[in-house]
Amino acid sequence: MIRMMVRPRWVAALLLALGIAAAFALLGHWQLERAIESGVVVERSTEEVKPLTDVAQPDGGVTQIATGQMVTADGTWVAGDEQLITTRFNGGISGFWVVSHFQTDADAASIAVARGWAPDKSTAEAAVATLQAAPEIGSVTLTGRFLTGEAPELPDPQGDPMELTKVAPSALINLWADFTDQSVYSAYIVDAAAPAGLDVIDSPVPDVDQSLNWLNIFYAIEWVVFAGFAVFLWYRLVRDALEREQEEAALEAVTASAPSAGA
């Protein structure tokens, strides 16, 4: 077996198998690094208040690192564009959010703002009536937590067709008065304060995802198995070649001895 392995043909095949195994091992190492990197906790200064324009831009997507960031923006409230969002929890209690339309001074873009929470619909509607009866005039400074807009949800066929359960900018712009084709953020802000008649909305610090990417770890193990299989395949080919040579030698010996046996 050893003499078979050191033949030039099989030495060259061994070098090829080792090269393939090394490539597979490098791919496995790369997948393992990706799994570790995905599990590294990225410290984000979400509680450091940043200008809204530094965190996101209107008419675009929202990056993961921007979600949960405390932001500030100067702008004006658009009177009459208040909406109620149902089934919103505050301290574990289901209630209503009052969401207003805010237009920024920096880029004249629109963004939805969750102003406050009420435990029942009548209280929320009373707060909306107060905001619409005495709207805040002029530029104000808004501070709150920037969150990704939610996907719209179809209303309950048995319920109110106008009921909103999600803060979905794509749905709210259809309810805002005189809104045509202005720039809009695909996100919303939870106000750090609340107008009279409403409670401040709970807005905790976002959780940090520390989980490993197990799919990448599985791929890394696969590449290691492939590397071992490349070397095993070379060994199996050498062994098969040796067994074939032994069988041919035995057959030749039998053939050579056949005439003498007949004589």
Question: What labels would you give this structure?
Answer:
2 domains; rod-shaped; 6 helices; 263 residues; five-stranded mixed β-barrel; alpha+beta
Please describe what this structure looks like.
The chain has 263 residues and is an alpha+beta fold. It has 2 domains: 2-39 and 212-257, no CATH class; 50-191, no CATH class. Helix content is 40%, strand content 21%. The chain has 6 helices and 7 strands, in the order ααβαββββαβαβα. It has a 5-stranded mixed β-barrel. Helix 2 (8-39) packs antiparallel against helix 6. The longest helix is centred in the C-terminal third of the chain and has 49 residues, at 214-262.
Concise description?
It contains 6 helices and 7 strands. It has helices at 2-5, 8-39, 52-55, 121-133, 169-172, 214-262; strands at residues 50-51, 70-77, 83-90, 93-104, 110-118, 140-148, 184-191.
